[in-house]
Amino acid sequence: MINWSNLDTLGSYKELKDVKKIDLVAAMSGENGAERVKKYSVKMADSLSYNFAAKEVDDDILAALDKLAKEAQLAEKFEALYNGEVINTGEKRMVLHHLTRGQLGENVMADGVNKREFYEKEQKRIADFADKVHSGEIANEKGEKFTTVVQIGIGGSDLGPRAMYLALENWAHKTGNFKMEAKFISNVDPDDASAVLNSIDVAHSIFILVSKSGTTLETLTNQSFVMDALKKAGLDASKHMIAVTSETSPLAKSDDFIEAFYMDDFIGGRYSSTSGVGGAVLSLAFGPSVFAQFLQGAAEEDKLSAEKDMMKNPAMLDAMIGFYERNVLGYPATAVLPYSQGLSRFPAHLQQLDMESNGKSVNRFGEPIDYVTGPIIFGEPGTNGQHSFYQLLHQGTDIIPMQFIGFKNSQLKNDVDIENSTSQQKLCANVAAQIVAFACGKKDENLNKNFKGGRPSSIIVGEELNPVTLGALLAHFENKVMFQGFVWNVNSFDQEGVQLGKVLAKRVLAHDTEGALTAYSELLNI
Predict the structure, then answer these.
(1) Closest CA to 279 of 462, 97, 472
(2) CA distances (Å), 265 to each of 115, 364, 483, 485, 491, in order?
(3) SS3 assignment, position 4
(4) Which tens digits make up the pLDDT trace of 148-177?
């Protein structure tokens, strides 16, 4: 039987707080550090591994974390989730994004429909559609091929798919898998849509409108913006647009679209990159086979996340170490630092994934909790970030744990040797140097130049960034967030915190305001 208990009621949490902390500077200095790098590493899917040598843990702390993971029943709760129990208590829904890339357990049925079969059917429909677009069977009014795809969506309909597209764009060019350029319109700011429309040939562009409900204000506003631009260009908008929506949405049977592809309420926006939300744009941009490889990587990582042994389950281990940093060591934030330009928007996606999921102050039953939950997430690709906020990471008053991501090889394989090392070698050298610098520091009598060290980090290392490794990375962080939500006993799958602002914005537009809302409306000339 599963018990959904608050963290502060668990005996092993109280025990964990009494376990002796480690001295990270001593642990990572000299041969001690070298041994930890070899010892504290767990294999992930494909070529990836999760190395946590520079985290503030040792065997005693890991044993205590494992005991807590067992008492909190993390493995059992994941099993309940993928077998179709109602885990999203706020919206009384199952949580089924794992089924978009594989089946870990039993058949999951809803309204007489096998959900794995439903997701596979939609993936097949998207693949067939993409193939017809690439062959020219589906074309514009003049029978000319579409050359650009534009996704219109916001939040999880933009951040995840955009991050995935940018991550694979160079790889696709290098490997001959680049089919169509993709652009994204998300912000209701008219300058966003205008900039994208000004950068493309609308006559040869196909637009994907993504809205599960079919009522998202920003997305429908941008749809109207795009339809107006197509009309002004003398084009039939219905011959240039497809929809990704729910079967009950007003968009589902609309004549405004060439085709509609379906999603459902069991997949939240921030978890939707492996559904049709990511599938349509990635299949059009790179081809269905590339999207299938992406799903393969995610499925392989999901299997590891179903491991009951924490030390063989990289997502659970990462989650528990992150929980320890937040709830025992008291660190307020986590920096995500990919040393790969392809992952330039990955931290932005993880911001939504983590902060929208676990930024909660009530438990999954709506009761207040008396302990901290999700950290602030931010990040930037290396080495750019080194010249931005690393000053604070090294010498600031707050200790901010870090998650590095690095690859041994570049995507384009285009490099130059300068001063006896390539650019890729310089990039990797910076990752290694930063991890050790953060952990060990450097003493100096001049306090302005003194580095205390003791700044914890982990690194996920792989051979190269490709569709399989990208899928594995995505699933790792999705599952990490899920496990942390289980530990904190919060519902990681709703997002009531985004609703109030939307309601008030509608009142402003309807001129139904008072007090400060009226004053701000006047200040902004609404």
Answers:
(1) 97
(2) 12, 18, 21, 20, 15
(3) coil
(4) 999 999 999 999 999 999 999 999 999 999
**391 phi-psi bin (left φ>0, alpha ψ -120 to 50, beta other):** alpha
Prior bond of 422 cis (ω within 30°):
no
pLDDT score of 214 more than 90: no
Helix then strand then coil, in percent of the chain rounded to 5, is 50, 15, 35
Over residues 440-448, mean pLDDT: 98
* 338-388 residue pLDDT tens: 999 999 999 999 999 999 999 999 999 999 999 999 999 999 999 999 999
Spatial contact of 215 and 255, defined as CB atoms under 8 Å apart = no
Mean pLDDT across the stretch 112-117? 98
Q: Say how far apart CA 443 and CA 427 lie, in whole Å.
A: 26
Closest CA relative to residue 303, chosen from 102, 510, 155, 41: 102
Active-site residue, selected from the candidate residues 17, 387, 413, 443: 387
For the stretch 475-497, pLDDT in tens is 999 999 999 999 999 999 999 99
Residue whose C-alpha is closest to residue 90's, from 360, 356, 364, 361: 364
In the annotation, is 356 catalytic? yes
**Do residues 320 and 310 touch, judged by C-beta distance below 8 A?**
yes
Residue 113 structure tokens: 């429909």
Asked if residues 288 and 467 have their Cβ atoms less than 8 Å apart, the reply is: no
* Catalytic member of 356, 380, 464, 478: 356
> Rounded to whole angstroms, how far apart are CA atoms 192 and 461?
35
Residue 387 designated active-site = yes
Give the CB-side neighbour count of residue 305, counting CA atoms within 13 A: 33
Which candidate in 39, 408, 449, 502 is catalytic? 502
Query: Measured on CA atoms in the order 89, 94, 99, 105, is the torsion positive or negative?
Result: positive
Other Cβ atoms within 10 Å of 398 Cβ, number:
10
Tokens (6 digits) for 427: 């990039």
Burial class (CB in 10 A: 0-12, 13-18, 19+), 489: buried
